[in-house]
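Task: sequence design from structure.
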């Protein structure tokens, strides 16, 4: 009987034994394998349209013929399924606690990405033990190696649940808007990754601006701050102009790429997908699982320190 066929009591005992065995083996696999592009989308604060970008980008990449896996990495407040109108039978929570394999938790969107949904309002997912998180991450990235692109929609902020996924990915997109709080929170996120030595492959998306020129100016301010205080030079990956139809698409539980495919936001997301698709995969070596766990263990301290110093 495998771990997906046991009752809840036996399952927990078996998983505990499996976790101990995994720790004793000292598994050190790399985060990604083969030619899979692993990209995390994050933001310093909520309400900037990060999930809209993640969902829209995943569909735009699929339109170009890529095989995409979209993972809702917000382990406490997941909402990718809501924005896409999906009703999952299983979530990542079921996978972590041994109730089903990743293959069963996967949702396939017609003409779009495969989606792994997290359980919203499940605090036990936020504070996973290192051993349990190690087991899940190993399975997750092995599964993702079957795709061209692996997109992770992380939670907002600089907490460990968000920054761990960002630090584990060789490419990161930070979303912000033209608001002082969004600008400074985006900087705080970039600073946290910099303190962890994981500020590589950082790109910026400016969302909900009136003009492309406004987006350039917002990016310029963030880039100037990063260069002055961190010695980092960021890259502008995209500017998304404001479109009230985005709110309509969310209410209708559709991606803006499909709801208003001829609009400016959809065109911007398709342009972003084209640039990402034409770019060579980042050559920076992703951390192995042992290093990933070490990063997780210190991230709470760094997040607290970053918040107190900002």
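Answer:
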């Amino acid at each position: 009987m495998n771990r997906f066929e046991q009752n809840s009591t036996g399952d927990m005992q078996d998983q505990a034994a499996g976790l101990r065995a995994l720790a004793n083996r000292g598994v050190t696999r790399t985060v990604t394998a083969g030619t899979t592009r692993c990209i995390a989308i994050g933001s310093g604060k909520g309400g900037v349209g990060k999930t809209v970008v993640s969902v829209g980008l995943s569909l735009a990449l699929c339109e170009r013929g890529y095989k995409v896996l979209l993972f809702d990495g917000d382990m406490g407040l997941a909402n990718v399924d809501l924005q896409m109108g999906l009703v999952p039978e299983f979530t990542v929570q079921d996978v972590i606690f041994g109730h089903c394999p990743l293959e069963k938790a996967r949702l396939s969107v017609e003409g779009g990405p495969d989606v792994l949904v997290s359980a919203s309002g499940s605090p036990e997912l936020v504070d996973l033990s290192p051993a349990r998180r190690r087991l899940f991450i190993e399975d997750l990235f092995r599964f993702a190696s079957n795709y061209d692109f692996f997109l992770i929609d992380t939670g907002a902020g600089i907490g460990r649940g968000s920054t761990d996924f960002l630090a584990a990915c060789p490419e990161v997109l930070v979303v912000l808007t033209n608001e002082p709080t969004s600008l400074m929170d985006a900087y705080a996120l970039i600073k946290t990754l910099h303190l962890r030595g994981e500020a590589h492959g950082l790109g910026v998306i400016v969302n909900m601006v009136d003009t492309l020129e406004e987006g350039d100016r917002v990016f310029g301010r963030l880039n100037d701050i990063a260069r002055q205080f961190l010695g980092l030079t960021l890259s502008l990956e995209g500017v998304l102009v404001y479109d009230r139809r985005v709110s309509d698409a969310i209410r209708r539980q559709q991606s803006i790429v499909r709801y208003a495919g001829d609009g400016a936001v959809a065109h911007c997301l398709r342009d972003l997908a084209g640039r990402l698709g034409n770019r060579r995969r980042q050559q920076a070596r992703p951390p192995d699982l042992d290093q990933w766990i070490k990063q997780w263990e210190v991230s709470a301290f760094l997040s607290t320190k970053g918040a107190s110093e900002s």
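DSSP finds 14 helices and eight strands in the chain.
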